Amino acid sequence: MADHHDPGSAVTELSADQCWELLRSGDVARLAVIVDDHPDIFPVNYVVDSGTVVFRSAPGTKLTAALAGPVAFEVDGYEQQSGKAWSVVLKGRAQQMRDVDELNDSFDLPLFPWQAGRKGTFVRVEAASITGRRFPVAARSSWTSPYRDRPRTAPE
Q1: pLDDT at 2
Q2: Which residues partner with 37 through β-bridges?
Q3: What residues does 32 pair with on adjacent strands?
Q4: Domain-located, residue 150
Q5: In 3D, which of 75, 54, 25, 31 has the Cα closest to residue 121?
Q6: Which of 30-39, 93-102, 141-150 has the highest mean pLDDT?
Q7: CATH number at residue 113
C-alpha cells in the first residue's frame, strides 16, 4: 500500500488556466444546485465559451434551481497514458442568456444534449472560483485487504 507521503501519490493543484484547458476537453459535467434546502446534482452537456460554461435546459427543477442561487459545476477525467485522474470544480452563478445577439451566437456553439426534447433555454455559468487537482490513480491491489484470502472461522 502506498504511503500517503509518497511523492508518486502527490496531489497537484492546477492553475486556473489548466482548469479551463481541462474543461474545454470535456463535454459532460455535473451541475450541483440547491433544491428546497437540499443539494441536488444533474448531468449536463456543456461547452466553454468566453471564459464561462454554457449548457442548454428545458424548464424544470434543474433550470429553476440553477437560476435561483449559486451553483457548482464539476468535470472529471482520466489520462490513461499517465495513469492520472483530474477533477475541476467551478463555482459561480448561472444566468439565462436573453440578449438576442448572444442567443444567436449560442446556436453556433457545439452543444448537443444527449437527451432529446425541447432544450431551448441557454444558461451561462460565470466562475466566481475555479479549482482543480490532478493525482495518480492508485492500483486496485493497494485497496485489497491482506486478510481477504484467509479462511474465516466461525465464531465460538
Answers
A1: 39
A2: none
A3: 41, 72
A4: no
A5: 54
A6: 30-39
A7: 2.30.110.10
Q: How many domains does the chain have?
A: 1
pLDDT band at 133 (very low <50, low <70, confident <90, very high): very high
**Cα 62 from chain centroid (whole Å):** 15
Residue 154 lies in a domain: no
| Residue 141 dihedral angles phi and psi, to the nearest 5° | -65, -20
pLDDT at 120 exceeding the cut of 60: yes
How much is the pLDDT for 56?
87
Q: Could you give the CA distance from residue 8 to residue 93 in angstroms, rounded to a whole number?
A: 36
Distance CA 99, CA 147 (A): 63
Burial category of 128 from C-beta neighbours within 10 Å (exposed 0-12, middle 13-18, buried 19 and up): exposed
Q: What is the pLDDT of residue 126?
A: 94
**Measured between alpha carbons, how far is 147 from 152 in angstroms, rounded to an integer?**
9
Helix (H, G, I), strand (E, B) or coil at 144: coil
Assigned C-alpha cell, 13: 493543484
C-alpha closest to that of 20 among 53, 66, 56: 53
Write out the three cell numbers for 59: 424548464
pLDDT in tens, 40-78: 999 999 999 889 999 988 889 999 999 999 999 999 999
Q: State which H helix or E strand residue 19 sits in.
A: helix 16-25
Query: Considering the domain boundaries, does residue 102 fall inside one?
Result: yes
